Amino acid sequence: MSAPQDAPPGWAVIASSSRPGKYYYLNKATGATQWEYPTQAAAAAAAAAAAGPAQPAAAKVRASHLLVKHRDSRRPSSWKESVITRSKEEALDLIRYYQKEITEGRATLATLATTESDCSSASRGGDLGFFGPGDMQQAFEVATYKLSVGEISDPIFTDSGIHLIQRTA
């Protein structure tokens, strides 16, 4: 795949370090990334974000997560596996299994994240600390802000993989 000639205003084209010859798009205002060419709505949102918020930014939140990567993830490797080969469907099956373990009270997100998450936050029980608008990939951020403290999301898909998110503050 050759590099696109240009990106919409507010976006940058970045060469993937994990997938030679592949490029992704970076929203300069939010830091969100995606493989697909930004839609007109996404480009307009990036331009609006670059212009600055119309009102004060929302307060920071804190969350923990359990991430299951798959072979199509942005970086298909982790502290557990140097090369992740599972399919997206297999990753979703794992996330649903972990979700069931949590909802049925056999485990907590923090304990599962410690041993099962493909994110380096596993060493902290999945804790990502505090973050604000624009600090995380958009789907992750939107899901987190919709949660009440203590609530756990359904599976959330990002370029990184599939997440279960628990808002902690």
Shape: globular
Number of strands: 7
CATH architecture of the largest domain: Roll
Q: Which CATH class of the largest domain applies here? A: Alpha Beta
What is the N-to-C succession of helices and strands?
Answer: EEEHEHHEHEE
The averaged pLDDT comes out at 86
- Helix residue percentage: 25-40%
Number of helices: 4
- The unreliable regions are none
Number of domains: 2
Distance linking N and C termini: 42 Å
What is the radius of gyration?
Answer: 17 Å
Description of the structure:
There is one protein chain. The chain is an alpha+beta fold and 169 residues long. It folds into two domains: 11-51; 61-167, Chitinase A, domain 3, CATH 3.10.50. The chain contains four helices and seven strands. The strands form two sheets. The protein has a four-stranded antiparallel β-sheet with strand order 5-4-7-6, sandwiched between helices. The chain has a three-stranded antiparallel β-sheet with strand order 1-2-3, with no helix packed on it. The radius of gyration is 17 Å and the shape is globular. The termini are far apart.
Please provide a brief summary of the model.
The chain is α+β, with helices and mostly antiparallel strands and 169 residues long. 27% of the residues lie in helices and 21% in strands. It has two domains: 11-51; 61-167, Chitinase A, domain 3 (Roll).
